[in-house]
């Protein structure tokens, strides 16, 4: 098994679940040819009875760490939390999953990040209200911690556009001989020139179709994966219900979703896919097998409430799925 560092955000997710008050409403405007969907019909000044509330732990860094730990990897989480009950919930989750939390930093005068998720139980649609708190910035984190950890892999989710911290950790990981998988977020993608420069350190890049098109020109998946592979050898591009495409520089695979299950909550689907791939791949599985597991992990997560409850262990019996090599 491998030693994997997951660097990213840690949040408490508070779910408010309801069957009727959060139904989507279409709103038409003169400036938009298509209707815009607004979530719910909540009126100002009223009280709304919620069917259920659920407290979970989220954030891209901790979600990914759980995938690695359940696979049996030695997993270390690096990120920020506050001195508060939400921070205690994060630490308790990490401890329960056997994840090393000794490199977690308590950010002074900041609360642990928190998301309130309004979820329509019937459709699985949701709106997320997020206070980043301690996970809003990462410049306090020390890349020299990697000297003590000596990781085999560094898994990076969004650091809120902090390109300097990303570069510090990437350079240190590379100097130590660690491999790097990167799943950038919106704020990293907005800094295209800086992002393109950082890709030289990356071994595996995970983006969705829209994100890929922000980095390189192209309209179809085969174009996008081919052009991105000029920057990074192994590239994975997801496309929602249309599946994904991936290349390791030798073989390219096009594949659909693992299984068409009812969606309960899409929170954490991308984290489950990316970390599921690396968890399997770092266990010695083939590129193709790891892609199948990534899809299965993501499918399992969206079929349950919360970003972690559906995460697989790697010991499951997986069935066949649509996947073919692209010539």
Can you put this structure into words, describing what you see?
- The chain has 327 residues and is an alpha/beta fold.
- It has one domain (3-40, 47-326): Ribokinase (UDP-N-acetylmuramoyl-L-alanine:D-glutamate ligase, 3-Layer(aba) Sandwich), CATH 3.40.1190.
- Helix content is 29%, strand content 27%.
- It is built from ten helices and 17 strands.
- The chain has a nine-stranded mixed sheet with strand order 6-1-11-12-13-14-15-16-17, sandwiched between helices. Strands 5-2-9-10 form a four-stranded mixed sheet. Strands 3-4 form a two-stranded antiparallel sheet.
- Helix 1 (60-70) packs parallel to helix 9, helix 7 crosses helix 8 and helix 9 (269-281) packs antiparallel against helix 10.
- The two termini are 33 Å apart.
Write the layout of secondary structure elements.
Blueprint: E1 3-7, E2 11-18, E3 24-29, E4 32-39, E5 52-58, H1 60-70, E6 74-78, E7 80-81, H2 85-96, E8 105-106, E9 113-120, E10 126-131, H3 145-149, E11 153-156, H4 163-175, E12 179-182, H5 186-189, H6 192-198, E13 204-208, H7 209-215, H8 221-228, E14 234-238, E15 244-247, E16 252-255, H9 269-281, H10 287-302, E17 323-326
Parallel strand pairs: 1-6, 1-11, 2-9, 7-8, 11-12, 12-13, 13-14
Antiparallel strand pairs: 2-5, 3-4, 9-10, 14-15, 15-16, 16-17
Can you describe this structure in just a few lines?
With 327 residues, the protein is an alpha/beta fold. It is 29% helix and 27% strand.
Q: Give me the side-by-side strand order of the main sheet.
A: 6-1-11-12-13-14-15-16-17
Low-confidence stretches: none
- Named CATH topology: UDP-N-acetylmuramoyl-L-alanine:D-glutamate ligase
Tally of domains: 1
Radius of gyration: 20 Å
Helix content: 25-40%
> Strand percentage, roughly?
25-35%
Structural class: alpha/beta
- Total helical elements: 10
The backbone outline, from C-alpha atoms, is globular
CATH architecture: 3-Layer(aba) Sandwich
CATH superfamily: Ribokinase
Provide the CATH top-level class. Alpha Beta
Reading the helices and strands in chain order gives EEEEEHEEHEEEHEHEHHEHHEEEHHE
Please give the largest β-sheet: 9 strands, mixed
What is the residue-averaged pLDDT? 94
